[in-house]
Amino acid sequence: MPDLITADQFQALNKKKPAKGNPEHDLQCQVVSDFDRDYPDYEGLLYAIPNGAKLPFKNVTNKKTGKVSRYCPEALKLKAEGLRPGVPDLCLPVPKGRYHGLYVEMKYGDNKPTAEQNYWMQRLTKLGYCCRVCYTRAEAKHIFKTYLSL
């Protein structure tokens, strides 16, 4: 006779796992939408720098060595056009107070800025830009409100 399970155990077995998605992307979309709504005088000036774009790579086999490597023509094109790893996610090119503009690096959950991102934020700060790391919509609203009131 097969083992019997309770109704709760059965439901737990059939419960769908939440979709992974891209919570940092979703957060950034909400932040940009909030900004455009809350600051109509600056609408469209907050823009994304797509360094974290997930591009499709192809596996290519070297005919001589048999070694497989990843290849993405779009990534090569973007690098040639000036794509720089570590540049913060969002830029607001509006001078306020002593700053030339604002850069915001979006993070979600326990994610921390990478070494490249820290390097860029330190470099931009030395050049007169305000740089912030943001984890929530509320934090983003506070960052923009504080910056734009300088």
Salient structural properties:
150 residues; Trna Endonuclease, Chain: A, domain 1; two-stranded antiparallel sheet; four-stranded mixed sheet; 2 domains; alpha+beta
Structure report:
- The protein is α+β, with helices and mostly antiparallel strands and 150 residues long.
- It has 2 domains: 21-51 and 86-150, Trna Endonuclease, Chain: A, domain 1; 53-84, no CATH class.
- The protein has 5 helices and 6 strands.
- The chain has helices at residues 7-14, 23-38, 73-80, 115-126, 137-148; strands spanning 47-48, 58-61, 68-71, 90-92, 102-106, 130-134.
- The strands form 2 sheets. It has a 4-stranded mixed β-sheet, sandwiched between helices. The protein has a two-stranded antiparallel ribbon with strand order 2-3.
- Helix 2 (23-38) packs parallel to helix 5 (137-148).
- The longest helix has 16 residues, at 23-38.
- The radius of gyration is 22 Å and the shape is flat.
- The mean pLDDT is 89.
Instruction: Output the CATH topology of the largest domain.
Output: Trna Endonuclease, Chain: A, domain 1
> What share of the residues lie within helices?
25-40%
Radius of gyration: 22 Å
| Poorly predicted sequence stretches spanning 5 or more consecutive residues | none
